[in-house]
ABC transporter ATP-binding protein
Amino acid sequence: SDPVLELRGVSKTYRVKQGLFGTPVPLRAVDDVSFSLGRGEVLGLVGESGCGKSTLAKILLGLDMPTKGKVLVDGEEIGGQDRLALARRIQPIFQDPYSSLNPRKTIHDIVSLPLRVHGIGDATSRDKAVRETLDLVGLPVRVVNTYPSQMSGGQRQRVAIARALIMRPEIVICDEPTSALDVSVQSQILNLLNDLRNEFGLTYLFISHDLAVVEHLATRVAVMYLGRIVEEASVADLFDAPRHPYTRALLNSVLTPDPSQGVPDTQLGAAFPNPIAPPSGCHFHPRCPFAQDHCSAQAPRAVPRSGGHVECHLQDPDSPMYRPDFTV
Ligand code: SF4
Ligand code: MG
């Protein structure tokens, strides 16, 4: 079937000043990213902080424009749509329901806000939509007049999900939606997201540092490193047979429950590089246990792998480093 969401060669370059009087230098936060998702698919986007995941999410939400390339929703370019059309199609669920819900507003006000902002319906129809949507996410209608501070973390994340769903979007951008929750509550929220996907045919971009969560929910996985998707495959292909050394390192890492700490570098050797001055050739070469001189001289191209692509000289039949029997 036709893709619901398609990215074609999307790049985003910012100009950042180094120091107060420094000349602005380019920072390529997203570098030539392409993928496409069918209805009901869940793409898990994984990588360390600073890899470009959040910039990609902002572009998809229309909060930022790509420098190059196109984002298409149902074949229509999103730069050409008004914000209402985009908000109806793509809605976010953010990491921290404590900070993303206004503490001075009632749950009714919070969940109905997208409808009011876009002038959809009247007070009666909005009230009905709020009650129906709270029911969908497993919250009792009586919470409408309460405040976020009166709710548990899991309930607040359900409110955030209701606020996204009230627009009846096709695509939901989930940015670490369970990272701030107790482990016992995480699986309830993941199950809810999965049920909602089945019920409404939702397509998710699921940003997470937690590979266990990604394996549980995603149908495809994209591994991002310094703005590039270095490996993409179906969840089974990627977890069973990772081809990129960085993917392997992520799978080996003991991941911390706190995403603000990022993925620990213990097994990745050298620290995460400065995105303003990415390493030459393959950006991963300073941390890669398989790197050779060729890796810093030339960037690997994307080559097909089972169910996706990978960017590593060891996997490229046209590279002098090609090793057909190589597995990481
Ligand atoms: Fe490692 Fe070289 Fe492959 Fe990059 S291209 S991942 S440095 S082996
Ligand atoms: Mg982030």
In short: The chain has eleven helices and twelve strands. The longest helix spans residues 183-200. Residues 5-315 form a domain with the Rossmann fold fold (CATH 3.40.50.300). Residues 49, 53-54 surround magnesium ion (ligand 2) (CB under 6 Å).
